[in-house]
Amino acid sequence: MNTDVLWPEREWAESQVLRIQTKLHQWAIDDPDRRFDDLFNLVCDPAVLVVAWARVRGNKGKRSAGVDGLRPDAVFSAEEGFLPRLRADLKAREFLPLPVRERMIPKPGSSKRRMLGIPTARDRTVQAALKLVLEPIFEADFKPCSYGFRPRRRAQDAIAEIHQFSSRSYEWVLEGDIEACFDNIDHTALMDRVRRRVGDKRVVSLVKSFLHAGILGEDGLLRETTSGTPQGGILSPLLANVALSVLDEHFAEAWQANSGSTYQRTKRRRAGLANYRIVRYADDFVVLVAGTQAHAEALREDVATVLAPMGLRLSEAKTKVCHIDEGFDFLGFRIQRKRKRGTTKRVVYTYPSKKALASIIGRVRALTRRSSHPTLAVLLRQLNPVLRGWCTYFRHGVSKATFGYLDQYVWHRVVRWIRKRHNKTKWAVLLRRYLPDWRPTEDGVVLFQPQTMTVTRYRYRADNIATPWARRTRTSGSAA
375 near 444, Cβ under 8 Å? Predict the structure, then answer.
């Protein structure tokens, strides 16, 4: 790639970055032992920086400033000053990350709060550039059982895999919970895994500098970071997957050695041994066991031993073993085997968990407070995307009854909001003005109806999830 061409147009830059990523990914696949050198020049490349900046400038965090007070959405014409200065500092080896700004946010489904680290705009851009270069390399090594923070993979794939195996004799489940995973990852162990693939000391040094950048707390005190990778950084999910892939590799090796074929799996079961399958989404994972409860209980110590070198440990209180008939919650879904209505057959069902339903109910309640919005149209514009997004996530499950309940609850909350905001107006007038066809409406905005969301079974894709940089196969009449 010609690095003398400065600040290309975004469209051209994206095509060039995709071409480089594809080459890196294929080289990593072709040689599993290859250590990549001279990656630093790619990180500093103008096309990579343009794409990295476009992603920083286009995500939800663009309105949040780091410790330097500079918001990404306040930077205009970055190619004229911001990016040239950043590239010059990188090339001169003068770039030094600043501490992340601490922001305590509510933990979903809990009254507790967790720390979100907000890097500066400069640091986010360099992290995005590092991710563009490193992700295709590490993706070649990641196992198919991992789904979180990976391109073209989503939570529904993890749920579909659990449904697939739990419907086929994998009846015992070890629900794993890692204590403060992002905060406790051992830096030395993580960097050792990074060095297996990255031989460029400049890139290794850059990654390490982000790990040791420190945290500026809400109390104004600066704290060192001796372990972990702060949530909120663009590079953090990739580094967390690099660390947690030790778990994937452990179970993948056991699967290949003992359970690679149906014959081997059957032979093990007849010998009183168990077969295992892990499904992981970031730091949430379950191990499905075709065996007995004792086999599943024995996995606790096995998993703890694998995680210990990475500085991680299981939560004794939250890590538990259950049977598929009892059911368990994972990624917002309740997964449980029940008797199919009208038959004696037992089927594994996936549907929204009580905690997930309580979460959306709480969100609707907060949005429909009396003084939360000036007009009904503004309220509906805030409410509809929340409802549509929640229903879209859960539509690949047995969710019709839940959608019906949510539909009724939202309708009553919005109607109560209308009546409270217009408490001196007669009901007949409100009905004519705001409820044509009994659906809350104003200025052409109609309340989204969850009950109308189509429910379908998600297609299990197994190992057939291609990366964005997959090798193109040669076909007749075309060149690869």
Answer: no
- Residue 178, SS3 per DSSP: strand
DSSP conformation letters of 266-279: HHHHHTT--EEEEE
Percentages helix, strand, coil for the chain (3-state, rounded to 5) are 50, 15, 35
**Is the CB of residue 95 less than 8 Å from the CB of residue 126?**
yes
Question: Closest by alpha carbon to 133, among 473, 472, 469, 471?
Answer: 469
Reduce the secondary structure of 63-131 to three states and give it as a string: HCCCCCCCCHHHCCCHHHCHHHHHHHHHHCCCCCCCCEEEEEEECCCCCCEEEEEECCHHHHHHHHHHH
For residue 347, the tally of other CB atoms under 10 A from its CB is: 14
Can you give the pTM of this predicted structure? 0.92
Backbone angles phi, psi at 56, to 5 degrees: -65, -45
pLDDT tens, residue by residue, 231-240: 888 999 999 9
**Cα 123 from Cα 138, distance rounded (Å):** 21
Q: Are 151 and 139 in contact (CB under 8 A)?
A: yes
Nearby residues of 238 by Cβ (< 8 Å), 6 or more positions away: 131, 134, 135, 138, 149
- pLDDT tens readout for residues 120-132: 999 999 999 999 9
Alpha-carbon span 86 to 96, nearest angstrom: 11
